[in-house]
Amino acid sequence: MRSIKFCLTLLIVFTCSAQYIENSCPAPSEHITGLAGELYAIDSLQKVVYELNPWSGEVFDTIPIPWTQCSPVGLAIRPDSIIFAESGSALIHVMTMDGDSVGSIDLSVHGLQTITGLCAFYSPQKLHIIDSATNTIYEYTLPLGSGNISELFTLQSCPEVHDIANTCYGVAVACEDSLSPVRIYWDSVNYYTLSYGDYSSAVGVGTASEGNRFYFSDPDMGMIHRYCMDMGGISGHAESNPEIKCRIPNPIEGDTEMQLHLRSSGEVSVAVSDISGREVISVYEGVLAEGSHSIPVYMMNLPNGVYLMKVRCGDNFSITEFTLLNSSR
Question: Based on the domain organization, do 186 and 261 belong to the same domain?
């Protein structure tokens, strides 16, 4: 069978003008400490999980949480289960969608101290956990009890952290930053801030079905906001004359070259991440002059799947989605 390739130029320049609050709805409580799409909220005072209409905030269902000694925090939803943490501890609990207890695990044996946030994604089946005692984000391979846990990175100079969520741009972290109560980190130091919108605080944060959006609870305003980090999203449009232009084959078979055009010189970072936002390959780090460049990308050893090519130059950022089809896999 003949292999057919076409080149995809897909541009997302991450600028403040592209960000906005897409929707706000009343929160069912002032004590929402965790969110998960599309859309569940955990109430630390009532010890219940609400299933909500993500646009109106209407409560579809109220699921009681099995007894815990301390308040529940963080929230992750799986197709058949609900995962949450117990405040002031490294305990994680799992229950059915009807509220029946499935089991618990104490991650203090792995060095965790105080879990405040969780998020899960389906493929691969992993759980991201933040320990507010050290500001470290961990990755845990499900099911719980597998013992397969590793550090992603530790947030530097981030004020008191709460919940986390995965986005295609990085990890969204709800924290006590009065100017930007949610920060989107792509590594331990660098992050994006919230831009336009009427918001005041953030405690719970949850992944939306679209990777360029997330939810966060705003207890000061009594609302849950749906935040859009880019109006076009991965499948949208970009500036007619962007700062960064990235061109790669799609699909890709093994190793390839990317064509990168810069309108201005600067410190450039190029990386490949999986669809959850986790970096799997560092492609290039260094200074590039303005103009066009060919950069080799080695992906022969990666499994087949959908990936994101992330390019950063100064304050400008672009993301290109592509499919990897390694014939040897």
Answer: no
Whether 203 and 248 map to the same domain: the answer is no
User: Contact at 8 Å (CB) between 86 and 72?
Assistant: yes
Cβ neighbours of residue 189 closer than 8 Å, sequence gap 6 or more: 156, 157
Give the number of other CB atoms < 10 A from CB of residue 282: 10
> Using CA atoms, how far apart are residues 215 and 182, in angstroms rounded to an integer?
10
Among 201, 228, 255, where does a domain finish?
228
Which of 201, 166, 202, 199 is closest to 185 using CA atoms? 166
30's tokens: 């002032």
| Alpha-carbon span 96 to 65, nearest angstrom | 10
pLDDT band at 13 (very low <50, low <70, confident <90, very high): very low
Query: Where does a domain end: 228, 263, 284?
Result: 228
Q: Are residues 191 and 264 in the same domain?
A: no
- Cα separation of 154 and 88, whole Å? 19
Secondary structure letter of residue 241 according to DSSP: S
pLDDT digits (tens, 9 = 90+) for 121-175: 755 588 999 999 999 999 998 887 777 899 989 999 899 999 999 887 789 999 9
- Count the domains in the chain: 2
Q: What residues form DSSP beta bridges with 18? A: none
Note down the domain range covering 299: 244-324
pLDDT at 320 over 70: yes
Per-residue pLDDT at 329: 55
pTM of the prediction? 0.68
Helix (H, G, I), strand (E, B) or coil at 107: helix
264 shares its domain with 206: no
List, edge to edge, every strand of the sheet that includes 32-36. Answer: 32-36, 40-43, 48-52, 59-64
Q: Which residues contact 301 (CB under 8 A, 6 or more apart)?
A: none
What whole-number distance in Å separates Cα of residue 272 and Cα of residue 320?
9
